[in-house]
Design goal:
Number of helices: 16
Order of helices and strands: HHEHHEHEHHHHHEEHEEHEHEEHHEH
Organism: Agathobacter rectalis (strain ATCC 33656 / DSM 3377 / JCM 17463 / KCTC 5835 / VPI 0990) (Eubacterium rectale)
Number of domains: 2
CATH architecture of the largest domain: 3-Layer(aba) Sandwich
Radius of gyration: 32 Å
Keywords: Membrane, Transmembrane, Transmembrane helix
Protein name: SGNH/GDSL hydrolase family protein
Length: about 425
């Protein structure tokens, strides 16, 4: 009996020890699993962080390279980017067109004399086929009381519409993605559209001209940090024209131009834009075939909009060939002051622009006008010496000689026989 009791006790003791060993083993296994699971989790977390960091670095580098090699005219960049700096729904008059818009008219001068706000959304050599896109972009941010189109982009022969460089100058700098894609579909031939959707394919060879890339990149960076556009798109070259006196120029209004203008007029109507002026700004050369402007006038007025040619008003405005142009297509600082004074009065008288702006906006425009005055005065002094420096938005922030060097692609005369170019780093001979 005693032996049975002892045997049972020992047996139970052994069973308990066995259970305890098994329990400890299980706990150890569970603990090790937890540790391993934690280590695996940390490992996966680190891997995700490394992958994300690599992706971020790649995106930043790709964005930098894409922007750096996107070599378009520095003045165009400053003018276009400056437009996006304007507070929404604060512009009374939108000026849209080619380089005449930013060379012949100064928004800050008009503000000082007539109290309305305006902006010169001009792109050098832009064809009339892009005017609709420019207006469409303008209307994403502004609801102007008056839209003014300078019509030179419609008065060229058909090859003017095929110049790839000029299409890129606007399309590549459009902020609104939907507008950019629509513009590509509407304007660019199908076999070239991929170069506009993925411009790096075209721009990659620009590394051969690293100086110009650096100039345009510096302009983009400068405009990125600018709080507003002080010049409101205005730009001028400090020189006098060397175009021989008495030269004439032939204008064109082809079926293609008529179709593009008709499309623009239809768009203005569809968008409810009520006050539109199509204008021909003064040029140095006399027009060989003025009937062309009558044809434009007839088409514009058939849609209920206004047309005015100021070519015949040069004497009344006080503009003369010797003193007031920097080339055959553009007024210099002397001519632009005269034309701005005339144009400001013309717009005020014909469209009853009410200078009803908030104190904050008036203060902001007053400061912009003050800073622009310094640049304009410097430009006038240099023009007297015909130094040829280029004054534009970056001249507000940088020494004049340095800012002028950024404007690497000078505005040249328009050649009606200009041929299309396929590479951005190929100079356009005008």
């Amino acid at each position: 009996m005693l032996l049975l009791l002892i045997h049972g006790t020992v047996k139970r003791s052994l069973e308990m020890k066995t259970v305890m060993r098994i329990t400890k083993a299980k706990e150890k296994i569970i603990k090790n699993k937890a540790i391993n699971s934690t280590d695996e989790g940390k490992g996966r977390h680190r891997k995700v962080i490394r992958t994300g960091a690599f992706a971020l670095v790649f995106v930043v580098l790709f964005s930098f390279v894409s922007t750096f090699f996107k070599m378009t005219d520095a003045v165009n960049i400053a003018t276009i980017e400056g437009f996006y700096k304007e507070p929404k729904n604060t512009i009374d008059v939108m000026m849209i067109g080619a380089s005449e818009v930013y060379a012949d008219y100064s928004a800050t001068e008009a503000w000082k004399n007539y109290g309305y706000t305006s902006y010169s959304l001009g792109v050098s050599g832009v064809p009339g086929s892009l005017y609709k896109s420019m207006l469409r972009e303008a209307l994403t941010r502004q609801h102007p009381k008056v839209v003014v189109f300078e019509v030179n982009g419609f008065l060229q022969n058909d090859s003017y519409y095929d110049r790839t460089v000029k299409l890129h100058s606007w399309i590549d700098n459009i902020h609104n993605k939907e507008n950019r894609l629509d513009t590509i579909k509407e304007i660019v031939p199908k076999d070239e559209q991929d170069n506009f959707r993925n411009p790096l394919k075209l721009y990659h060879s620009n590394w051969k001209d690293i100086d110009k890339c650096a100039h345009t990149f510096a302009t983009r960076v400068g405009m990125y940090f600018a709080k507003t556009s002080c010049m409101k798109g205005f730009s001028s070259i400090a020189k006098y024209s060397d175009c021989p006196s008495g030269k004439q120029k032939k204008l064109y209004f082809t079926d293609k131009s008529r179709a593009y203008m008709t499309d623009l007029l239809e768009y203005c109507k569809a968008q409810g834009v009520e006050k539109v002026l199509f204008a021909r700004f003064p040029h140095e050369k006399e027009i060989k075939n003025p009937q062309v402007l009558c044809d434009v006038k007839e088409l514009v007025e058939s849609y209920g909009y206004d047309f005015a040619s100021f070519e015949g008003d040069k004497e009344f405005i006080g503009i003369n060939e010797r003193d007031d142009f920097y080339n055959s297509e553009h007024l210099n600082i002397n001519g632009s002051r005269k034309f701005t004074a005339f144009m400001g009065k013309y717009l005020s008288d014909n469209y009853r622009l009410n200078a009803d702006h908030s104190p904050e906006l008036q203060s902001a425009w007053g400061e912009c006008a003050r800073r622009a005055d310094k640049v304009i005065s410097a430009c006038a002094k240099d023009t007297d010496l015909s130094l040829g420096n280029h004054y534009f938005e970056m001249s507000v922030y940088l020494p004049y000689n340095f800012s002028s060097s950024l404007a690497t692609n000078k505005v040249a005369d328009t050649n009606n026989d200009a041929k299309p170019v396929n590479e951005l780093n190929t100079p356009v001979k005008k």
